Amino acid sequence: MKFFIDTADVSAIRKANEMGLVDGVTTNPTLIKKAGRDHEETIREISSFITGPISVETLSLTAEGMLKEADEYLKWGNNIVIKVVMTPEGMKAVKELSKRGIKTNVTLCFTAMQALIAAKAGATYISPFVGRLDDISQYGMDLIRQIRGIYDNYEFETEVLVASVRHPIHILEAAEIGADVVTVPPSTLMQLFNHPLTDSGIKAFLEDAKAFAKG
Ligand code: G3P
């Protein structure tokens, strides 16, 4: 399972990348706003040290506008993926971009039928938002299971990219289900390291090493 990092915070991306945990990056308008920097400058900087796919979200609601934005975003790096919203206009744009060999990420997916539509349009990635479904008392990971089953039934190549991840259990279940990618906020990524037995084990080893360590 690939790990993408879900942030536009360049220093957080660098930190995760040093640990070999960044197979790609996903951004959205909220994350760009949070990073507080110029959109283009931020994406260009990420693209200067990340070789994996970087999703950049279009803002237009028309296919024509999305395609125009895509032309611009593609100049910002050689690994840009065009992120579009799950709408009829979005799927028109995905169909055209896919025809041109440009990678796409369909975002704001909340049903298996939306995922089916995106795959038929030729999307490279589908982004089901599990955390936002949990927020409305709908079990988000059920959607991942459904999409995995449907894509496998028909051998769609669209990759299941689990988004709106809020905690390590989302990542564990995504891996168990066989999602292709999980996009993880930096704070959740760091939570994956935690175990009290690791901490106490390190402490005990260091204590015992005092008996023989030189200097
Ligand atoms: O990848 C989409 C993700 O950033 C949305 O997450 O936490 O805003 O639901 P969240």
Overview of this structure, please?
There is one protein chain. The protein has 215 residues and is of the alpha/beta class. 52% of the residues lie in helices and 17% in strands. The protein has helices at residues 10-18, 29-35, 39-49, 63-73, 88-99, 112-121, 130-135, 140-154, 168-177, 186-191, 196-209, and strands at residues 2-6, 24-26, 54-57, 80-85, 104-109, 125-128, 159-162, 181-184. It starts with a strand and ends in a 6-residue tail after the last helix. SN-glycerol-3-phosphate is lined by residues 6, 26, 28, 127, 129, 131-132, 163-164, 183.
Any descriptors?
215 residues; alpha/beta; 11 helices; binds SN-glycerol-3-phosphate
User: Helix/strand/pairing class, anyone?
Assistant: alpha/beta
Residue fraction in strands: 15-25%
Distance between the termini: 43 Å
> What is the tally of helical segments?
11
- Mean of residue pLDDT values: 98
Q: How many beta strands in the DSSP annotation?
A: 8
Principal-axes geometry comes out as globular
Spatial arrangement of strands, main beta sheet: 1-2-3-4-5-6-7-8
Radius of gyration: 19 Å
* Ligand species: SN-glycerol-3-phosphate
List low-confidence stretches: none
State the major sheet: 8 strands, parallel, barrel
In short:
The chain is α/β, with parallel strands linked by helices and 215 residues long. 52% of the residues lie in helices and 17% in strands.
